[in-house]
Amino acid sequence: MAPMARAPHSRAGQRQAALQSHELEALKSAPIFERLSPGDLNKIIATSSAETRPSGCMLFSQGEQATAFFVVIAGWVKLVRDLPSGVSTVIDVAGARAAIGVAVAAARSAHVSSAYAVTPVRLLRFESAAICSVIRNNPSVALAFIHSAAHLHRSLIEDIEKLKSFKAVERVAAFLASLTQQREGRATVRLPFGKTLLAARLGIQPESLSRAFRQLRDKGVLVVRDGVVIADIGRLKQAVDTESGAYLEP
């Protein structure tokens, strides 16, 4: 994997800006925060700093001591694990409201993957020492973080299930359905990152992704530049939500 520019929290590449009211409102529904009372949320947010990082910036590297965790406000971050063989594997691509590196930061252990900004990204940075102090003095915050860990575990199980049981076309359909809250009618979604990374995120080869898009074309799913037009988003979501691939079969 080609090296990417890193922007440590005290150097160039990062721009700090105050958290905006609409950003705070959106973050209330983040899994890591959704069980917090308004008062506890304010205590947590008070320990954070809002940052803007450019595309390609490394947030942290595998094996590095974790001193902070991040919550994505806007943009996308990929988590990559480097194997001893030299092969790099995309573990996840995290978008808005996702928390990154929470467990290792709380334990102050080493990062098990590297994190890179895929797009320009807005983040909340939480220093380990500050957040651990809040947790020690606020049991309700500790419970909220346990809930967040359970949510992450459930998401990982769902990802593993898709890797083991979903065909390529089903994985692509599920990803497209996740990009919009619209439940019916014609929908247009924007692919948030390139198709090579999308294929890696879904655990398929780029050529399998191309075949899946061709297969979905017969179901009214049309790729246009960096966007996708879906003729009937309701029908696509129903196929995904019922875990039935019959509609997606050629």
Q: Please report the first level of CATH classification, the CATH class of the largest domain.
A: Mainly Beta
User: How can the largest sheet be summarized?
Assistant: 5 strands, antiparallel
Total number of β-strand segments?
12
Give me the side-by-side strand order of the main sheet: 1-2-9-4-7
Helix-strand topology string: EHHEEEEEEHEEHHHEHHEEH
Verbal overview:
The protein is α+β, with helices and mostly antiparallel strands and 250 residues long. It folds into 2 domains: 15-163, Sandwich (Jelly Rolls); 166-248, Winged helix-like DNA-binding domain superfamily/Winged helix DNA-binding domain (Arc Repressor Mutant, subunit A, Orthogonal Bundle). It is built from 9 helices and 12 strands. The protein has helices at 21-27, 38-46, 102-107, 128-137, 139-165, 168-178, 195-202, 206-217, 233-241, and strands at 15-16, 48-53, 58-60, 68-74, 77-82, 88-94, 99-100, 114-117, 121-127, 187-190, 221-224, 227-230. The strands form 3 sheets. A 5-stranded antiparallel beta sheet has the order 1-2-9-4-7. A hairpin with a 2-residue loop joins strand 11 and strand 12 (227-230). It is globular. Residues 1-12 have low confidence and may be disordered.
